[in-house]
Amino acid sequence: MKFECGDLDRALEAPELMPEAREHLKQCPACRSEYRLWSDISATGRQFHEEWESPTLWPRIRSILEAEPKLISTPSWRRQWKVWAIAAVVLVGIGSLFLSRFQQTVRTPASPDVARITGAPANRDFLTEQALRDVQRTEAAYRQSIEKLSSLAEPKLADNTSAQAANFKEKLLLIDSAISETRSNLDHNRFNVRLQTELADLYREKQQTLQELLTRDQKN
Amino acid sequence: MIRKISASLSIFFLAVTCFAREEYTRAFDQTISLRAGARVFLEHRLGDIAIHTHSQPDVIVHAQIRVSAADTNEAKTFADRIQILIEPSASQLSIRTRYPEHPNSFMGFHNISYFVRYELTIPETAPLDIRNSFGAVSVSGLKANADITTSHGDLEFRDSRGTQRLQNSFAGIRVTNNNGNTTIENSNGAVDAADISGSLSIRDRFANVTAARISSGVTVANSNGGVVVTDSGGLGNIRNSFGNVTVHSFRGDLTVNNSNGKVEAANVDGSAELNTTFGGVRFSDVKGQLSVRANNSRIEGERVVGPLVIQNSFGPVVVSQIQNSVRIQSGNGEVSVANIHGGANLKTSFASVQATDIAGTLEVENNNGGVRASRARGATVKTSFAPVSLDAISGPLQIENQNGMVDATSTAQGGCQPVTIRTSFSSIRIHLLPEASYRVTARTSFGKIRTDFPLTVSGSLSNDELNGVIGGGRCEMRLTNNNGGIELLKSGS
User: Fold this and answer.
1) Residue B448 lies in a domain
2) pTM score, whole prediction
């Protein structure tokens, strides 16, 4: 099957298409950008509860509703519409803000065409403080996820002397080396979008490689 | 309650909008006259580079130094400390970026970020040497040799002339329209090369490689990624593993060594050698000789002008429309050939052999597998524990089987076309034209001999042995069986 941009949505729902999707992503910046967005939205979704600025909001709403049984027993939930509306605003506000921060942080760095120098918007080159915090949280989540995957993959690779296992080992070493190099640069340049994007890409690639390794191992 | 929620919201949005940062941009512009023959050397990291060319002897350097810090003063101070060193000499013009070793900030060096973007316009005939990292490089219009290394940023090279060496890692390399030999090395990044008047050499891994319209030879060493070569010529040498190799329209000799991946070759003007394991081989329209060596693979193809040699195991082989001879050696895999304009020599085991329309002689050696053939100019077949069925064989017939029936139809006419058939524990049935002319010796045990033909018998008569003459007795026929019958039948009966 020749993988095309239109197949990306399908691949996101069908894990067996992901190896072909990944090959396509290596060559297609547009799809890569879209995939990155989906990945980060997905990651954001998973972490959303951790980002809740007012974790007692819902319990308070619930306690208010429970404390006023008369109001609840009647169709008068409409009387509480202001509470619900504000809660919705909070949800939408925080969600939109968080997503927009992510979109900003995962935006691809400026193209190699330096003709864009003069017109390049400033926010594409450097992160803001808030965006950096988001990125660092995402990175921490990635690292945790990767560490878990690594611990699962490690014994499978250790005892395996096949050519394929050697390939996986080599690729993981290569990625680890690149992660280390990128992190070293980031120590002095934390707001640099290119470096942050590169690091995120490397984590993503490592995660995909480990997932591929584990999936293949399960199939075999 | 509503007041509390409103207060929380206000605090939240306030927290989000504080910690604003300031950015500062410093432009660097300088024009330097370059000596004739001198090269341009650019050493850089953290930022993109774009190279344009012109017909003037000047090098025009434009750089954009960008810094982000907690406040504008801090950003400006740091930007001023970033140096762009320009050092002309007789042989080269060096341009180097120097970032401060330890950025100074009241919040510590963790609070500053920076990079430099370059845009250079250089003489089109000036050799170019670039060392970059964490930045993309694009070069266009260069009419001289170049040696470019970068990492973590795309490398694009186009509309050039000269010998080019391009290296990258963790990002792609794209080359278009170079008049000269091109060498590319990458790691974990795709390579895409097109329209190269010269040779192309690519070394890559963990990514895909594509090459199109390369005039003077393509060499690719890749692993863990696909390789696609189209509409190219010269000598083709492709090595790969854990990825597919596809070559279409190649004007020259082609060698592909792959493993754990498919190989596909179509429209090859020269000879081809296609090898793989644990994949598959597909070929068509090969003008020269073709050799295929594989393991655990399916091999299929058609339209080869030169001789075809195939070696395989644990996979089927299906070929057709071969203008020359075919030699196939397989094991544990079916073999099927059709429309062969020369002879066919086919070997396998534990699988069937099928052959049709063989202009030359058919030779089959099998074990534990059946043989079915039609329309061949003679056949020599050896197998065991499976049936042999041959139809419309116009030349000599030699069949040796064990524990398997033999059913053969000879259409031999004119000259002597001897027939020798041997089997055991099954039957022999030979169909001959009515005008057949043979001296027949048929012998069996625990079976009967039956014939449609009038025989002139000599010697003693018995159920299990017969010596006689059909027609004029022009040629020899030996039929030997154990524990099975023998039948000599007229075709059509």
Assistant:
1) yes
2) 0.78
